[in-house]
Amino acid sequence: MTAAVSPQYLPRNSPIFSPVSLDSVTPHGPLPEECGDVTSFLTTPGGPQRYTDTFSTSEDEDEQAEKHMEMKNKGELTEEEVADCLSNLGLSATGLQHVYQFLSIPGRSLSNISILCNYVHLQKLELPYNKIKDLSCVSHMPYLIILDASHNELIDFFGFEPPKNLKEVDFSYNQISQMKDLSAYSSLKKLNLDYNHFQEISGLEKCASLTHLSLAHNQISRISGLDNLPLKELCLRGNLIQTIENLQPLWTLQVLDLACNRIQSLSGLQNLHLLGSINLERNQISEIKEATHVHDLQLLRELNLKRNPVQDQPDYRLAVIFLLQHLTGLDEQMVTVEEKVSSVNKYDPPPEVVAARDHMTHVVYQLMQPQVILDSTLPGLDTPYPMLVLTGPQACGKRELAHKLCQEFSDFFGYGACHTTRGPYFGEENGSDYHFITEEEFRHMIHMGKFIQTMQYGGHWYGLSLEAIESVAREGLACVVHMELEGVYSLKKSYFEPRYILLIPTCVETYTRCLRARCLYTQAQIECAVARIDAYSSVNRDKPGFFDNVIVCDDRKEAYQTLRQLVRDYLGLMEQDGGLATTPTPERTSTGAITGDSLVVDRLKEPSLYSRAELSAKSPGSPDTDFPLSHSTNYRSKLQAELTPHKTSAEQASISRRRQMVREALMGKSPAAYSQLFKRCAHTAPSSLASPRRHAGSNLANPGEDSSSEESRASSGLSMRSSAGAFSAASPAARGSDLGSDVGSGLAAVEPLDISALVHQDLDTVRDPSEYGLTPTAPRGGVPEHLSPTVTSYPTRPGSNAKPVLPPIPSGRKTAEPAPAAPAQNQPADG
Ligand SMILES: Nc1ncnc2c1ncn2[C@@H]1O[C@H](COP(=O)(O)OP(=O)(O)OP(=O)(O)O)[C@@H](O)[C@H]1O
């Protein structure tokens, strides 16, 4: 055997040295003292030779080959093999020599690698897929940085002296079962111990550099022994873990893989604020609410809950996406923008969406009823009915103020009582404050298309019915209603164009005191009401013009005076000695409302002109009706002009677009959804049209009002309504004239409704709607179930019916007539 130079060292002037780039050479620390003079390594006795063996004879070669074969058969690593597998020429630690830094010998069934003791300058050693049981040679590699001994037969764990710079170790796929103290391996950054037989995690406490730890597919049943490690990635998949525990101190953790365990809850992850990815595939998580445990992890982007029972929950994906809105991937699938939007719309819809749904529900239910062209007290398309809406947080005084207003301006305003499913408070009158009905009745009214808008508040339903407005309109009055913000959103979607006045508390203490004084509300309800002040003020701030006026209501008296003045400005009323004496003023008032001209004078001159009794005495169509009706119309349109806020051109365009759509729907040119709805009603239309009923209030309607306004009212669900009366007899002539005038009406650019087929229909052919099972009181079949709002049952409100709470609310009704009874289940509200 020739004296050989260790192939790890090359003289600086070696020919093979020059073309190699040294950029990639990893610098390392100085040689440890025990290594002595580096030059001694140049002549390591028995060291393998790679390129200098130029003097050997063929005999020597044979002998060597034989020996080589023998060693190979024994699983012993030979110098030749090592020489073949060395790579990455670079500088030694001292920088004085050039050495091969990497050695990779995979899959050679090696069991004895003791020869590697000589390769002291190795920095990377890869020995996977062998049969190695002993790694003690690593003790001689002080510069080793990366060690891969995966897929071997190791039963011992780190059985060598710790190389000072050892950073990455892969012992996966071995047979190690005991962890040992690794405090000496303080440089260790990545440790892979997958597929071994560990049952417990221990000995890592002092691995102050450990950022990546993988213990997948062991037999670990508890997460422990990881305290204060600077881990960024932790993989414990394929173990026997049932609970996520002891991870709180790992605040640096970014990636956590706990797939294939027995975990039922995500609890325990709450504080890991740097977590970006969690894999919990194939566990036993069954509740969507578990996602709330990671709700606050703002950096969480990937969550995998595949093959967990929770996936069977309805709307699982949307619900999780809603709870974890920062996710970009769920169950290894990208979370799309559409999914994010739908999840928010489903679980926390913005007020616009809620209002749109509410509006759509009521329009659809209205359209599902037998359609009739029905005269209405309400003005037509171009003259919206004058309404005043007082809005603001609960108990801010809007109801009280509404009543007061109706009382003081009883010639102008009537109180529109909403329906509610809550029980009456002490002193509240059915029909005066609210129509108190049961949830079943409420639901029935929804299905019958009675409502214009509804809202759930404090566990109870509230709804403004068309009949509530009509009943005020029939008296020739403008309607005053009060409602919460959501109601306003919804009403804004409808055809009505009220003035909206926001009553807002500015002093939280006063407002809270006021709420407490009522002894009606729980602390939570009070807090909720107080919190809603912000919602109102932010809408007012962010949406200029959303409310027509804002009145601070800390002091009820002052608030009422402001409201009163505002209304008087709207109406052009002037205070005189006698109190209610009024005079028209042709100019704009302090509030900016345009004052009326003859409006108030008319009212004063003929106070009884619009009284219901008087008007009812005049038969519709008789010449006598012309005079009062024209006055009535005159009055109403003027009042409307006073109360209706001026529209911007964009708003006007939007309104006319909506009207156009509905007109087209009525003429069968509509978009699919509309025609679909009308198709269903086609067979009922003739019977409905054959008997247009004029109800009591119809006397107030303008006889000259053409069908365009009827159509448009129908579009808003105002006059195309079902009612028992709608099917009573009326002369074909009247019908013809009504409809005929429709055709002649000046609906620019809109084709008139083709009613010829309907007009010529024999009355005999008109069938009672009940024959179709379409009684006005019976909910119509075919209503899509999903459109039905769920009315859940709630316990009665605390204090309801129990305590004297509200100060007596003055009645705002104009006449002493009994308030319209809440429509019973089998009684049409507009009948
Ligand atoms: N149809 C409706 N749509 C939306 N909100 C409504 C409707 N009807 C009533 N509300 C509002 O619902 C809230 C709860 O009404 P409720 O009458 O039960 O409360 P309250 O404690 O008596 O307060 P308030 O004095 O404001 O009426 C009130 O703010 C009320 O204005």
Automatic annotation (TrEMBL):
Transmembrane segments: none annotated. It holds the Pfam family LRR_9. Residues 41-62, 612-632, 685-720, 767-831 are annotated as: Disordered. Residues 385-568 form the Guanylate kinase-like domain. InterPro entries: GK/Ca_channel_bsu, Guanylate_kin-like_dom, Leu-rich_rpt, Leu-rich_rpt_4, LRR_dom_sf, P-loop_NTPase. SUPFAM superfamilies: L domain-like, P-loop containing nucleoside triphosphate hydrolases. One of its GO terms (cellular component) is cytosol. Residues 817-831 have a biased composition (Low complexity). This is Guanylate kinase-like domain-containing protein. It comes from Alosa alosa (allis shad).
